[in-house]
Amino acid sequence: MLLFRWAILLLLLVAGVSFAFYVGTGQTRYRRFGWVVLKWTLLAAFGFFAVLIAERAF
Question: If I label 29, which of 18, 22, 35, 48 is the partner at 20 to 30 A Cα–Cα?
């Protein structure tokens, strides 16, 4: 569980750095990459926490 939390944190950091590169350079590939990483990170995090909630409920 700790490993998954660190992975989510690092992926959110990657997305943030990608958006910072976009602001600094104006190249849209950084923005696109940041959105993709953010989307899949949030999807995985919601799934992970849904499993934790379901585990506690049953």
Answer: 48
Q: In the 8-state DSSP scheme, what is residue 45?
A: H
Counting DSSP H helices and E strands in the chain, the numbers are 2, 0
Measured from the Cβ of residue 34, the count of other Cβ atoms closer than 10 Å reads 19
Is the pLDDT assigned to residue 33 strictly greater than 90? yes
Give first-to-last CA distance, the chain, whole Å: 19
Query: Residue 26 phi/psi, 5° resolution?
Result: 80, 5
pLDDT at res. 53: 94
d(CA 23, CA 27): 8
Q: What distances in angstroms separate CA 36 from CA 13, 25, 49, 55, 56, one per listed residue?
A: 13, 19, 20, 29, 31
